[in-house]
Amino acid sequence: MTTRRSFLHQITGSVLALSVLPRMGWAEELSPDPKTPDGPVLRVAIMGLGSYGTRVAEAMRGCTRAKLVGVISGTPAKIRQWQTTYGIPEKNCYNYETYDAIKDNPDIDAVYVITPNALHHDAVLRVAKAGKHVICEKPMAVNARQGQSMVDACKAAGVRLLVGYRMHFEPHTLEVIRMRKEGAFGSIRFFQGLSGFIIGDPTQWRLNPQLSGGGAMMDIGIYSINGSRYMIGEEPVWVTAQETKTDPVKFKEGIDETIQFQLGFPGGAVASCLSTYNLNNLDRFFLDGEKGFAELFPATGYGPIQGRTNQGELQAPVVTHQTVQMDEMAQILLEGKQPVVPVDGQEAVRDLAIIDAIYHAARTGQKVRLGAPGQV
Ligand code: NDP
After folding, report:
1. CATH 3.40.50.280 is held by the domain 167-317+345-369
2. Is the CB of 205 inside a 6 Å radius of any atom of ligand 1?
3. Residue from 165, 223, 230, 277 carrying the catalytic annotation
4. What is the pTM of this model?
5. What does DSSP assign to residue 281?
6. Which of 107, 143, 150, 343 is the most exposed place for a label (fewest CB within 10 A)?
7. DSSP annotation of 195
């Protein structure tokens, strides 16, 4: 059941919080400072002060359990700007040459790696070696073998590795998962995942295989892969895939433009998905079972997420995804809280193994069997 406290927690940082609370008559029950933490606070340094790093930093203003205290950046001007904007002390500022010294900084608990995909692996290994927890953006690595080595390194160093799967904390998504677990849709037979957008600037790192590790699949198709797993609630056992490319100049070797793929699940469900850099308006999940259906549309954008089931519109709080994610991750790291859908490194290795299999299937035309979790 949603308590007032958990509801307030869920909507932290959202416009809804500002507009709804007084009308609900709850204002008098709030503590004098609604941002007073009710437990230990995770002190975070962000690595990579780009577009998404900035979004996370802004969202963290609304956190009660996580606080931005440090930065790692290759751009001195950004460091200075972030120091002013977020009140970050000089002693918590690093560049890519100096950040191993973070091991001697007792004021930082975790580093959030938000750099281009292919740089995640080395960064996570170095942060782990420095003895700090790591939160790493998706895709965690560029293949499953690399991902597994990151999981192993963090384990050996005695630190936790989490991945920025913000949808795993999103209320509409969690409501569909709850209904599916309770049998509201009956036995699940079908999932459709559509993930794509038209990518702009051809010179950006996302279109450079050395930095991205792949194309649309690594960047946006991964949402349909991950979504098929949490919506159906099983791990796929086979993969087929077909690739099409309309612009081989923009989408050079190693950069997939469009891949359609299918996943088979042990309970008999099939997922049919589209990953592309060549179409907009593609952010939709559809889950169908013998008794009912659920649709999320949009399913993974920054929000508001919307959806419906055969029982009607989904009613769930609208949240700032990254605010909730960081507050929840603080509790996972500091108090051992268990999320409904895992966000650890092993969860990411499963997605990477499926991506490896999709690329193999698209290349060879074969139906690829998936092995034990984490192995193709
Ligand atoms: P940006 O290009 O906007 O930012 C990346 C930052 O990484 C740069 O600003 C730079 O910061 C740093 N960097 C270090 N080395 C390089 C390099 N060789 N080339 C380019 N940048 C470099 O990318 P995004 O913020 O959009 O994406 C970063 C990561 O976040 C990706 O893995 C992406 O998949 C993920 N992401 C996740 C989202 C989600 O919803 N979970 C949404 C968007 C992205 P500095 O100058 O400080 O060193």
Report:
1. no
2. yes
3. 223
4. 0.92
5. S
6. 107
7. E
